[in-house]
Design brief:
Layout: E1 3-4, E2 7-14, H1 21-31, E3 34-38, H2 57-62, E4 65-66, H3 79-95, E5 99-104, H4 107-115, E6 117-118, H5 125-138, H6 140-150, H7 152-157, H8 163-176, E7 184-185, E8 194-197
Parallel strand pairs: 2-5, 2-8, 3-4, 3-5
Antiparallel strand pairs: 1-2, 6-7
Helix pairs in contact: 3-4, 5-6, 6-8
C-alpha cells in the first residue's frame, strides 16, 4: 500500500449506470488486492436488481463488495448513513492491507464523503407550517428579513427568494438557538485518505 504524507490511497471509479465501472473495478482486482465499496443509492437496497446493474453473486464472491444489499426497500438510507458505513468499510479494508475501491455513480454520496456534510437537526413540521403561514400572509421577504437579523452570514449567502433554504435556516435557529454554520461537521474523507477518482 502506497502512502503520501501518511495518507493511504482510496480510489474511486465514477460514472452513470451501465458505463462499465464494475467491469473496470473487477479487472483492477485481478492485479491489485482490493475490495469494492459501492457508492450507488439503489444498490444499498435488497432485491433492487432490475435496472441497477447490480454485480452478480459470483462477482461479489471473487472480489468482496461493501454496501450492497444492506437495507430493506421499505427503510430509508441517508447520505450521513452512507458516509459512516463507507468510512467504516474503508478502515476495515485498509487494516487488511488492501486498496479501498469506491465504485458507483451517486455523486451526492461521493461528494459528501469527499467534502463533508452538514449534520443538522431534522425538519420540524410545526415550524414549517408556521413559516408557510407567514409566507402566505406577509411574503418571503418577511422571513428573509428575520433571517438577516438572526443569521446575517447565512442570509447574505442565500437568494432572498429561496423559500426552502430560508425556512431551513430559520428552522435550525428556532430548534437549536444557533445558526446553521455552527453545525458544520466535516466527515471529510480527504483528511485521512488520499482519494484518486476517475
Amino acid at each position: 500500500m502506497k502512502y503520501i504524507k501518511n495518507k493511504p490511497y482510496v480510489v474511486a471509479i465514477l460514472g452513470p449506470t451501465a458505463s462499465g465501472k464494475s467491469s473496470v473495478a473487477l479487472k483492477i482486482s485481478e492485479y491489485i488486492p482490493c475490495e469494492i465499496i459501492s457508492i450507488d443509492s439503489a444498490l444499498v437496497y435488497c432485491d433492487m436488481d432490475i435496472g441497477t446493474n447490480k454485480p452478480s453473486i459470483i462477482e461479489r464472491e471473487i472480489t468482496p463488495h461493501h454496501l450492497i444489499d444492506i437495507i430493506e426497500p421499505t427503510k430509508s438510507y441517508s447520505v450521513i448513513q452512507f458516509c459512516e458505513d463507507a468510512l467504516f468499510s474503508i478502515k476495515n479494508i485498509l487494516k487488511k492491507k488492501k486498496l479501498p475501491l469506491l465504485v458507483g455513480g451517486t455523486m451526492l454520496y461521493f461528494k459528501a464523503l469527499r467534502d463533508g456534510i452538514n449534520k443538522l437537526p431534522p425538519a420540524n413540521l410545526k415550524l414549517r407550517t408556521k413559516f408557510n403561514i407567514d409566507i402566505n400572509k406577509y411574503g418571503i421577504s418577511f422571513l428573509y428579513d428575520k433571517l438577516k437579523l438572526l443569521d446575517p452570514v447565512t442570509a447574505n449567502r442565500l437568494n432572498p427568494q429561496d423559500k426552502q433554504r430560508i425556512q431551513r435556516a430559520l428552522e435550525v435557529i428556532e430548534i437549536t438557538g444557533k445558526p446553521i454554520s455552527f453545525f458544520l461537521i466535516k466527515i471529510m474523507c480527504y483528511k485521512n485518505y488520499l482519494i484518486a477518482y476517475y
